[in-house]
Design a protein that fits this description.
By secondary structure, the protein is of the alpha/beta class. It has helices at 20-28, 33-36, 54-62, 101-107, 127-130, 151-165, 200-221, 252-255; strands spanning 9-15, 45-48, 68-69, 79-81, 94-96, 111-115, 137-139, 172-178, 227-232, 238-239, 245-246, 256-264. The strands form three sheets. An eight-stranded mixed beta sheet has the order 3-2-12-9-1-8-6-7, with helices on both faces. Strands 4-5 form a two-stranded parallel sheet. Keywords: Hydrolase.
Length: 273
């Protein structure tokens, strides 16, 4: 990461609430082609979330604790605050002296921008201002939120505007919290009804919806220079497994999440990392 920070734009996308099993299934079935073409080997990496709900997980992610590979570690991290005794800080880790990655990248000359989705990013109550408050610039409006059937395309439009307004020589760290997977998501599946509610199938349909529009986000972020991208979930959610519904609980479908990192080429090339 020490070679990437300063030379690339950076994109972090959290597909809020996305389950690993659903993400892996759709990639294998060819139902998310725009995402799958960027996944190393065409598959999601299976990882463990750093938290069981949005606020806890993002606090960890912004401190450099991205979802952890589910194989025995320790696993070197991409980013880490300087911390004595850290077993996951390695030679390739971008180490910073600030308490969070966002302020560290601002110190490196990046414009840091948040395009929020779920309620922890809506800046309405004080709690909804904590995470977006880490950024130099943050955006949220109701059309980005969980109740909007067109949330992701609205978020992408705002991201395109952010990129277009930035001076060419200014590096960008863009964070997008995608709300479409979060409940309610029934409206993303044709024929589903509010009365029937959300299900694993409507969750999958929401990911297909995101896939139809994510190419625009990738194109915008690679329009100026190469971009290093991380696309992952912050936690999963339960749809009746062992009697559980939702998240903020310790179930396998909540803790196991999809993860991918890759390079979006500038105007000339593209390569997996």
């Amino acid at each position: 990461m020490n070679a990437i920070v300063g030379s690339h734009d950076l994109l972090l996308v959290t597909l809020d609430t996305l389950r690993y099993d659903v993400a892996a299934e759709l990639a294998a079935e060819g139902r998310i082609p725009n995402l799958a073409r960027h996944l190393p080997g065409g598959v999601w990496e299976r990882r463990h979330a750093p938290g069981s709900f949005t606020y806890a997980s993002h606090q960890a992610i912004f401190a450099g604790f991205l979802p952890t590979p589910d194989t025995p570690g320790p696993h070197p991290r991409l980013f880490a605050a300087r911390f004595a005794g850290s077993e996951s800080t390695a030679g390739g880790t971008f180490v910073h002296d600030t308490p969070d990655l966002v302020s560290a990248l601002a110190g490196e000359g990046y414009r840091t921008v948040c395009v929020g989705g779920v309620g922890f990013f809506n800046k309405q109550p004080p709690l909804g201002s904590v995470l977006p408050g880490l950024f130099q610039e943050s955006h949220w409006e109701p059309s980005f939120g969980v109740a909007s059937p067109t949330s992701f395309e609205s978020q992408v439009t705002r991201a395109e505007e952010v990129v277009a307004a930035l001076p060419q020589d200014r590096r960008l760290f863009l964070f997008v919290n995608v709300s479409a997977l979060h409940q309610p998501n029934w409206f993303h599946r044709p024929g589903a009804t509010r009365e029937a509610g959300d299900s694993r199938a409507t969750h999958a349909a929401a990911l297909e919806y995101v896939d139809r529009h994510i190419g625009r986000l990738f194109a915008a972020m690679s329009s100026r220079r190469p971009c290093f991208a991380i696309v992952c979930s912050d936690h999963g959610t339960a749809y009746g497994e062992d009697g559980h519904t939702g998240h903020r609980l310790g179930h396998e479908v909540v803790w196991t999440v999809p993860y991918a990192q890759f390079e979006l080429a500038g105007p000339e090339r593209e390569a997996a990392v």
